[in-house]
Amino acid sequence: MYKAAEEDFSEMAPQEAKQMALRYILEAWEEAIYEGVDPDAIATAAIFAALSDMIATYGEEPVAKMCEKLPDRIRTGEFTVGKTTQ
Predict the structure, then answer these.
(1) Which helix or strand (DSSP H or E) is residue 15 part of?
(2) What residue segments make up the domains of the chain, in order of their start?
(3) What pLDDT score does 11 carry?
(4) Which residues, in sequence order, are CB contacts of 32 under 8 Å at separation 6+?
(5) Closest CA to 24 of 50, 43, 2, 42
């Protein structure tokens, strides 16, 4: 399932690394849908995984503060497909 790295991702610019990470996640998402996993279940699992990892790295309070900003970011279209700049 995992491909051998063809390049050193630690050498990438941060924006390029984010784009590469998003491509990997979207590929896994599409594969799960193809296998019959419910998209809502995938979304819930992805959000849980992301928040759990961020909490392990930054702690609960900083992640909670970041999440407080999500409604405005969602409303301005930051996560809308076609508008995303990641």
Answers:
(1) helix 14-34
(2) 38-78
(3) 81
(4) 42
(5) 2
